[in-house]
Amino acid sequence: MPRTLMCDPALFEKDLSGKVYIVTGANSGSGIATTEQLVRQGATVVAACRRVDAGEEATRHLVNEQGRAEVMALDLDSLQSVRSFVETFRAKHDSLHGLVNNAGVMNTPEGRTKDGFETQFGVNHLGHFLLTELLLDTLKASAPSRVVCVSSVAHAGMRGVHATLDLDDPHFDQRSYDATAAYNQSKLAVVIYARHLAKRLEGTGVSVFSTHPGWIRSNLAKHTMPLWVQNVLMRPLSGPLGLLSYEEGAQTQLHCLLDDDAPAHSGEYYSQNSVLYSDKANRPGGWPMKSPNPHVYDDQLADRLQEVSAKMVGLDVGSSSA
Ligand SMILES: NC(=O)c1ccc[n+]([C@@H]2O[C@H](COP(=O)([O-])OP(=O)(O)OC[C@H]3O[C@@H](n4cnc5c(N)ncnc54)[C@H](OP(=O)(O)O)[C@@H]3O)[C@@H](O)[C@H]2O)c1
Predict the structure, then answer these.
(1) Range of the domain at 208
(2) CATH of the domain at 297
(3) What is the DSSP pairing of strand 161-162 with strand 157-158?
(4) Is the beta carbon of 215 within 6 A of some atom in ligand 1?
(5) Does residue 5 lie within any of the structural domains?
(6) Which residues are known to be catalytic?
(7) Distance (Å, rounded) from C-alpha 107 to C-alpha 180?
């Protein structure tokens, strides 16, 4: 396996006191590791968690002289919950220097969000889409600020077949449900949205990135194989398979949040290494790298995704143009 990409240690020396971040899905995996590092550097991190008790449990120890984690309820499965989260956030904070759209679900059984969207498209893309759009004014007022959209190598596709985004049937109403295709579609939407948003925000001081965090030993694969199989049988294979720790899985997002040069690459895709890139040349990953999926660079598809997503979440299409 190629080596894990790690942040320049100098980035972790930066003083983040007075800075405010939101990390979604902050109770687990790369989310908790991202939150820990930002708090260590003095930031206030709003840990946006579906299960508040799990968020409290995971972040209780995260407090120092300058920094702290604050748990707030956010269920991306519900547009009402996203709207309530933003109201609660705004009532407490005037600024937002970084938004990390980290939460996610993978290969879920066929299902619908509270608003009737296919679960993975709804949680991974639409919930974060609404969250980001509702926070744009605060991000702009706090510039320089950054948005990191956690995607996956899966957005590129598998076994040499590019993932697709079917905006005529995003919820699998007219085709049979395929959990992997639905995950890949949702993560492709995330990369396309990040690139489109970066263009809309040019000149505002808000930069936007998408990432593949690496193949992390986390709870994400719970719908793919039982956790005990992962934690007991698979553990000896972790090294050879190149599975990352939570801390390693947070590096790409932290690089995008903290690197001085990153804003010059707003809109681009940053990736850890992955055996899943069908083109061997891409396997070492890169900060940033060109996505192997040509759909990422389809501007008409991106415009349509913006329009369709805005309609689905009940935003005035006009008002979601930055
Ligand atoms: N693990 C990998 O190998 C890998 C590879 C590529 C990309 N990624 C991406 O990396 C991100 C983090 O994954 P991870 O590996 O750290 O997984 P994880 O440990 O399963 O963490 C996922 C987080 O998302 C939260 N979440 C799930 N549904 C939610 C909802 N409806 N509303 C709000 N939060 C919700 C989870 O909350 P609960 O604990 O309450 O469920 C958890 O905090 C995901 O976007 C994933 O797609 C991971």
Answers:
(1) 12-320
(2) 3.40.50.720
(3) antiparallel
(4) yes
(5) no
(6) 183
(7) 6
